[in-house]
Amino acid sequence: DLQICQHRAPTCCTKKMEESYQAAVRRERTQSIQALNFELKYMIVGHITAFQEAFESLLRFAENRTSSLFETAYRPMAKEAAEPVKELFTDISLYILGAETTVESAVLRFFDSLFPLVYSRLINPGITDLSEDYTECLRLTRQDINPFGHYSKNMVTELSKSLWASRMLSQALSLGSEVINTTEHAALTKECSRALVKMQYCPHCQGLTLIRPCVGYCLNVMRGCLASVSELDAQWREFISTLEYLTNEMAASHDLEIALSGIWNSINEAILHAQLNGPQLSATVDKVCGQPKQQEGNLSSASIVPVKEVTETQAFTMAHTSLNNKRREFINYMKRSRTFYASIAERLCDGDLVMRDSSTCWNGEDVV
After folding, report:
1. Where are the alpha helices (DSSP H) in 124-262?
2. Cα–Cα separations (whole angstroms), residue 81 to 57, 125, 271
3. How many CA atoms, within 13 angstroms, populate the side-chain half-sphere of residue 37?
4. pLDDT tens across 38-67, in order?
5. How many CB atoms lie within 10 A of CB 146?
6. What family is reported (predicted)?
7. Which residues pair with 157 in a beta bridge?
């Protein structure tokens, strides 16, 4: 009553043993594919974490640098500016992680929050009544009178270029991990299970427990079993090329590190521009929002203090070098995995499964 290991000679197998063999080959095949996938998956998942840590380190550095700008050069508004600064960097972090937001909305929201502070603490430091209505009017006016000149738009442009590549790389890594998980649990068809039993266990039914499959035979069976998985080859190669492109984009003209480290300078230039144009801005704001209550006495506007570059370069250089090294190491490894799905059958037939360096092997019917 054997269904798979039918043979002319007497056999020591039963139908129940064949069923046990089918369960065994399914389990073994899943384990062997998982073992092949492990290194690749470990590399991708490890780099998702490593990249994220490097991004967060650079973001923290850029945020601290921006906060220190307000504390040293614009002390009258430093306390109130802390929340908009925090929101800006939170939005940037969420964008890199793939949130449904844009760099432009994050930057413009920051400058909308910043203008009421610059106007009431630096341009007109005598203002005492900064009501919600007046603050909201200042926010809305910012969009029309453009107090920060071209600096706010330049910041959007610079950050959009560099953060886009980081965001895409983050999403691509997650996608790669998903693909590997899916192929790991690809179900074996009934025909495949039978073919694997015939290849691996039918010799046992003849008492030939030491005979292993012939190499060519093993390759034919594995290629048949893994046809759906090996079809991913073209897309996987394209995926690796995309990763290569994105890592090059990050390292080239759209350098994430340079863009993030330059945020404080863009904000400083924008504030200086607004202060230099203070009288014209005040005239326009008075017409649109009305005149707020002023403190008694003649308070001169806060003096313009050009800020020198904050000297925290050592931490930044370490984060920069760390990210560059991780990028280089990662893409070199991924390039070596370009043929991963094309060669999966060959790799499963390698090692102990097949007979090498011997004159005899199992061809599915007999010892040859």
Report:
1. 132-145, 151-184, 190-200, 202-205, 215-225, 227-230, 233-251, 256-261
2. 22, 15, 12
3. 21
4. 888 888 888 888 888 888 888 999 999 999
5. 18
6. Belongs to the glypican family.
7. none
